[in-house]
Specification:
Layout (H helix, E strand, L loop, with lengths): L8 H25 L6 H10 L2 H14 L3 H28 L25 H16 L4 H20 L5 H21 L3 H12 L11
Length: 213
C-alpha cells in the first residue's frame, strides 16, 4: 500500500479552505432558496445533459447519418473536442487524485474509475469548452450564445450543489474548458479534412455513397 502523499502547506491550506467554502456555499443556497431537494431532478438533468457518453454517442451517430459537409465539419470537430476533453480530464484526475466531497452520493450516471476523483470537474470543462468553441467558430444568434453560456453556468453551479465537486474543482474545470476551446479553435478542421476523417473510418470514398441501414 502506497504512502499517503504529503501536500505542500500552501496547497493543503487552499484545499482545506475550499472544503469549508463549499460547505458554506451549499448551506447558504439551501437555506436561502431551498431545500435543494426540490431542485434535485433539475440538477440531475443538467448532469446528464453534459455527460460525456451521451455527447460522444450522439455526435458519432449524427456523423454517420448526416451527410451535409458543413454539419459533418461541425460534428467531427465536436467529436475531436470531446475526446480531447476526456483525455485531459482523465490524466489530470489520475495525477491529482483529489477525492470528491464526503457527502457526495454514489448515484452518478455511467461512471468509470477516474470518476471517483474530483479535480477537475469534467462537466465544467466540457460545458465551458462547448459554450466557448461554438461562438468562436460560428456567428451564432445572440440568444443561442446566451443560452449556451447560461447552460454551462447552470451545469457548473449544479456540480457544487449536488456535492459532486468542491468549488475549486469547478473553477479549475472552467479555466481548462476555456483553454480547450482556444486549442480547438487552432485545430478546427476544414470541411474537406473533416470529410477525409469520415472517409477513413466509414470508407465513404465516393460522392453520394450510401449505406443500407
Amino acid at each position: 500500500m502506497g504512502e499517503k502523499r504529503v501536500l505542500p502547506k500552501p496547497l493543503k491550506k487552499a484545499l482545506d479552505w475550499d472544503i469549508v467554502a463549499t460547505d458554506k456555499f451549499v448551506k447558504y443556497v439551501d437555506q436561502k432558496y431551498g431545500p435543494l431537494t426540490k431542485f434535485k431532478q433539475l440538477m440531475k438533468g443538467l448532469e446528464i445533459s453534459c455527460h460525456g457518453i451521451p455527447w460522444l454517442v450522439g455526435t458519432a451517430t449524427f456523423i454517420f447519418f448526416l451527410d451535409s459537409p458543413s454539419v459533418r465539419q461541425l460534428l467531427v470537430n465536436i467529436f475531436i473536442a470531446l475526446i480531447l476533453d476526456i483525455i485531459i480530464v482523465a490524466v489530470l484526475k489520475a495525477i491529482t487524485r483529489r477525492r470528491r466531497p464526503s457527502d457526495n452520493k454514489d448515484d452518478m450516471f455511467a461512471t468509470v474509475s477516474v470518476d471517483k476523483f474530483s479535480f477537475p470537474s469534467g462537466h465544467a470543462t466540457r460545458a465551458v469548452m462547448l459554450s466557448f468553441v461554438l461562438p468562436f467558430q460560428y456567428s451564432l444568434w445572440i440568444i443561442i450564445t446566451l443560452a449556451l453560456i447560461g447552460w454551462s453556468i447552470a451545469v457548473c453551479i449544479s456540480r457544487v450543489l449536488l456535492r459532486r465537486h468542491h468549488i475549486l474543482d469547478v473553477l479549475g474545470g472552467m479555466c481548462i474548458g476555456i483553454l480547450e476551446a482556444g486549442l480547438m479553435s487552432l485545430l478546427w478542421l476544414s470541411p474537406e479534412n473533416a470529410q477525409g476523417i469520415v472517409n477513413f473510418f466509414l470508407d465513404e470514398t465516393q460522392v453520394g455513397a450510401s449505406y443500407d441501414v
